[in-house]
Amino acid sequence: xxxxxxxxxxxxxxxxxxxxxxxxxxxxxxxxxxxxxxxxxxxxxxxxxxxxxxxxxxxxxxxxxxxxxxxxxxxxxxxxxxxxxxxxxxxxxxxxxxxxxxxxxxxxxxxxxxxxxxxxxxxxxxxxxxxxxxxxxxxxxxxxxxxxxxxxxxxxxxxxxxxxxxxxxxxxxxxxxxxxxxxxxxxxxxxxxxxxxxxxxxxxxxxxxxxxxxxxxxxxxxxxxxxxxxxxxxxxxxxxxxxxxxxxxxxxxxxxxxxxxxxxxxxxx
Length: 269
Known about the structure:
By secondary structure, the chain is an alpha/beta fold. It has eleven helices and eight strands.
C-alpha cells in the first residue's frame, strides 16, 4: 500500500502518520493491533475507505515508524498519544476504527477524549481480553522464552498467517519477511502486558459515541464470547457478525468497509 507518511511529535516522542483518501471528506482514524503496524493491518481496508473518507493511520509507539520506548505503559497511554496526534492534525469528531488491541485503544480514546470520537468501530476486540490468569501467564512465559531464542520462528508464524489469510501476495514476500524479522520481542511483550492489564468493563458502558461492534465468530485469538460481552456492555451498539477468524481485517475487508460506511451514513442522519 504505497501511502506516504510523515512524523508528528508529541513532546519528545515521534509518531508516523499516513493519510490517504479525500482530504476534505469526513475523517476515519484507523488504529492497528498487536504485532502488526498500520500498513500491514489495514492494507486491504484503507483503500476501500479512501474512496469516501479522509483515512488517517497512526503507528502506535513501538510500531512501524513511531518511536520505540523501552518502558512499561498502559492501553490508556496509547489512547492519550493518539489523541495528542489528532490534536496536531486538528482532527475532531472522527470515526475511529480500532482492531484487536486497537479496539482497546479506541475504547480508552472514546472515554478519555470524547471530543475526538464522533463514532467508533470496535473490531475483534473485548473489554477484558485476557481473563485466565494461569494460562495467560504460562503463555506469556512461553512467548518470552521463544523470543529470547530468536525472532525466526515468530517471523515464520506471522508470515504464514498473513500469507494464508491472503493479506499479501507473493510479490510482497521479501518485504513481509524483513518486517517480521525486524520486530523487537521486548517491545512486543510490553504491549502484551498492557493488553493483559486492560479491563474496561466498569466504564465502557459510559461511552456516548455511537458504536459498531464487529465480531469474527470463529476468532481463534480473542474468544467471541468476550467480544459479545463488549457489545452487551455498550449502549445500543450495532453489531456485525462475520464468519471469520481473527484475520477478518484481511479476509473480510470489503464487508468491514461496507458496514463502516453504512454505520457512518446512518449515524449522520
